[in-house]
Design brief:
Elements (H helix, E strand, L loop, with lengths): L15 H12 L19 E6 L5 H12 L3 E6 L11 H9 L5 E6 L4 H8 L4 E6 L5 H15 L6 E5 L6 H12 L3 E5 L15 E3 L2 H4 L5 E4 L15 H8 L3 H4 L7 E3 L12 H4 L6 H19 L11
Parallel strand pairs: 1-2, 1-3, 3-4, 5-6, 5-8, 6-7, 8-9
Helix pairs in contact: 1-5, 1-11, 2-11, 3-4, 5-6, 5-11
The structure holds phosphoric acid mono(formamide)ester.
Amino acid sequence: MKFERSDLLGLEDLTREEIESILTTAGSFVEISERPIKKVPVMRGLTVVNLFFEPSTRTRTSFELAEKRLSADTVSIAASTSSAVKGETLKDTAKNIEAMGIDMLVVRHSASGAPHFLAKALDCPVINAGDGAHEHPTQALLDLFTARQKVGRLDGLRVGIVGDILHSRVARSNIWGFTRLGAKVVVCGPPTLIPPGIESIGVTVSYDLNEVIPTLDILMVLRIQTERLTQCFFPSLREYSEFFGVDRKKMSRAKKDVIVMHPGPLNRGVEITPEIADGPNSVILDQVKYGLAVRMAVLYLLSGGELTSEDSH
Ligand code: CP
């Protein structure tokens, strides 16, 4: 069976079955990265361009490696060294790249909706690698995959997403993903960093991390998105850390087997202390590891690959 979508733009409009089928397919890609020769020929002859208008370490490297491990030809373009700095529009940039005969475009942009705009303008599949404060679908898919690997299930779990919810595309995509797969999500942070009315998308809100932490099976910590702050949202980083930074004292109230997630990059000592980020409950590097398998699955499915069924495991 094929994946019935031509692009991956967000999790908001994906069904539970579609998300689960991507995660199941990702499961069949994990072992490729454990082989001595980390390569399969499923995208041989296809060309993928990664077009990044914002900085990235994990997502861009992960997509590039995923493409290479699937044997695709791959080119990565940073907007800062492209003709975008000479005034070329996003659409012109993408149309010119497409004219070179590419088969897929991965795009990160600071403007919410940029990948959706390109998906309409281009004939090839488009993957959203993060658009403004809107969505980061492959990050949420890899978070769901990691949580399922570590805990064994998602249905009925209580997930706390802590930090700058207002500016976080990771929070948004994870809310759609976790709630759709049956988890209960609570968002926690200073009132100024929680979007008003967010309860309408099926989450609960708390402003007290000490109260929330003992109830959680999964604690997802987010950094303050300083690049998107347009005003002062809290008095100081020190005060933010005191109330919302995850440290040993707050973690002493948590369940012993809670898993701690963070999409990266970390601001150590602000939203999380090093001893928690590197501690026994942390699955932060597992998220990065599984991200590769998840992105391989997304690339493979959008290039016309067959979905892996549960029966094949
Ligand atoms: N999680 C994430 O998107 O990290 P990068 O910004 O390094 O890609």
